[in-house]
TrEMBL record:
<dbReference type="Pfam" id="PF01702">
    <property type="entry name" value="TGT"/>
</dbReference>
<dbReference type="InterPro" id="IPR036511">
    <property type="entry name" value="TGT-like_sf"/>
</dbReference>
<dbReference type="InterPro" id="IPR002616">
    <property type="entry name" value="tRNA_ribo_trans-like"/>
</dbReference>
<keyword id="KW-0479">Metal-binding</keyword>
<dbReference type="GO" id="GO:0046872">
    <property type="term" value="F:metal ion binding"/>
</dbReference>
<feature type="compositionally biased region" description="Low complexity">
    <location>
        <begin position="64"/>
        <end position="79"/>
    </location>
</feature>
<feature type="region of interest" description="Disordered">
    <location>
        <begin position="43"/>
        <end position="81"/>
    </location>
</feature>
<protein>
    <recommendedName>
        <fullName>tRNA-guanine(15) transglycosylase-like domain-containing protein</fullName>
    </recommendedName>
</protein>
<feature type="domain" description="tRNA-guanine(15) transglycosylase-like">
    <location>
        <begin position="172"/>
        <end position="441"/>
    </location>
</feature>
<feature type="compositionally biased region" description="Polar residues">
    <location>
        <begin position="43"/>
        <end position="52"/>
    </location>
</feature>
Length: 442
């Protein structure tokens, strides 16, 4: 029997294959069980819908570790992707170009999920900030909360189980209505990926929260091409949702809001995707070239998620869901300044490789500012932890000179110790944000 222990901030895990310009791979959350510090995966499911699979396996034929992993990915070659409107492998497109409306989904899919829900505890009177809990089958996520990002199916600087699954590659060959075609960097074989197959993959992993296949075009792009991309992503997400609803299996699915900095497209994306029976909302797409553009976009967009979707009689009708009662996730943004701003705009969770990337490059986070451990100034600060207020195992057992020595000696254990601390710092930061909201300071 699985024994759950209550934690202040269980860390859902996401796996990225690089922070590139085209999000075209499997992405999902999976909350930690007691004792878990591991991720398995690195999987792509073989697909028959493209008419070719050079792997020699049939569709859906891979295994993952139940309820223990999560996958997220971004890929390169955006310019090739947005210009590629021909069919993959020479096949003609078979998917309709009009996204299905809310009436095409079963009525039961709009009903509350007994295994997954968002509990809204408190809303700030000073901002859109709020405190809540995301209840999943394997734990509770306190919000606002931070989500770690793993690359190549492993959280860098943390222990990992043996990887199960097949090779994945970051180079998209073609993108069209059917999905995405990748070429293996190992043997050159073509690996197809569809909205349906990514859902199957995440279900096999046992993800608590599934995020569908979506396309992320570059920052500055022609509005016509951007619209085509957004509308294609809408169709992909609807297909993903239909695939998910065939066998829900106590798993949730978020949609991904797109539109770049184009407010009309963002509004259309919010209105369409929130009309479908998704369990939560992820904010994706290009979010601006700097923090100011991000905050401006969130400041304009997030009030739309406070609409309750009810009619004049106060009834929430099919296709008009209550947006306030569903969690909101910000994709790929979790540096400290962005976190502080996003929380004030009503974001519940966010993910980034920010703290683990800093660890690999010798930077540790602290309440006194960043500690660039390679600096010789830390080599003689004996008995001084990275952060005097931190209770992580790194700060409790190791001082700055020892960490400086490990970094200079290129000892792999440094990355582990730094990652333990930086993740604890992020969790402490989110706990402080929750407390400040409850105290009316935010």
């Amino acid at each position: 029997m699985l024994q759950m222990v209550q934690r202040p901030s269980p860390i859902p895990k996401i796996i990225h294959h690089g922070d590139k310009q085209l999000r075209t791979a499997i992405r999902c959350f999976s909350t930690l069980k007691d004792g878990d510090e591991k991720v398995t995966g690195n999987v792509v499911s073989p697909l028959s819908s493209f008419g070719e699979d050079n792997s020699g396996e049939s569709g859906g034929g891979f295994t993952g570790s139940d309820n223990s992993s999560a996958t997220s990915s971004s890929t390169t070659s955006t310019s090739r992707a947005v210009n590629s409107i021909a069919s993959l492998n020479g096949n003609k497109l078979t998917q309709p170009l009009t996204p299905p409306g809310p009436e095409t989904f079963p009525a039961w899919s709009y009903e509350p999920r007994p295994f997954f829900h968002f509990e809204l505890l408190y809303e700030s009177k000073k901002s859109l900030a709020r405190v809540g809990r995301i209840h999943t089958p394997h734990g509770i996520i306190d919000t606002p909360g931070y989500v770690s990002v793993a690359t190549n199916a492993a959280l860098k600087g943390r222990a990992s189980q043996k990887k199960n699954g097949r090779d994945f590659n970051e180079n998209a060959v073609k993108v069209n209505e059917e999905g995405v075609l990748f070429r293996s960097y190992r043997d050159g074989r073509k690996i197809p990926l569809t909205p349906e197959s990514t859902v199957q993959a995440q279900k096999a992993f046992g993800a608590d929260i599934i995020i569908p296949l979506d396309e992320l075009p570059p920052y500055h792009i022609d509005d016509a091409i951007l619209r085509d991309s957004v509308e294609r992503t809408h169709r992909w997400e609807a297909r993903s949702l239909k695939e998910h609803l065939k066998n829900v299996r106590n798993q949730a699915m978020y949609c991904v809001i797109h539109g770049g900095l184009n407010r009309q497209l963002r509004k259309e994306s919010v209105n369409y995707l929130t009309s479908l029976p998704f369990d939560g909302y992820a904010i994706g797409g290009s979010l601006g070239k700097n923090g100011d553009e991000l905050m401006e976009l969130l400041g304009w967009m997030m009030p739309m998620f406070n609409e309750d979707g009810s009619n004049s009689s106060g009834e929430v009708m099919q296709g008009h869901v209550n947006r306030r009662n569903k969690p909101r996730h910000l994709l790929g943004i979790a540096d400290e300044p962005s976190i502080l701003g996003a929380v004030r705009h009503g974001i519940d969770t966010m993910d980034s490789c920010y703290p683990t990337r800093l660890s690999r490059h010798g930077t540790l986070l602290s309440r006194e500012g960043k500690v660039h451990i390679k600096s010789g100034r830390y080599s003689r600060q004996y008995g001084v932890p990275v952060d005097r207020e931190c209770n992580c195992s790194t700060c409790l057992h190791y001082d700055r000179p020892y960490l400086w020595h490990l970094f200079k000696a290129k000892e792999p254990v440094f990355v582990q110790l730094a990652t333990i601390h930086n993740l604890q710092y992020m969790n402490d930061l989110m706990e402080k944000q929750r407390q400040m909201i409850l105290e009316g300071k935010i």
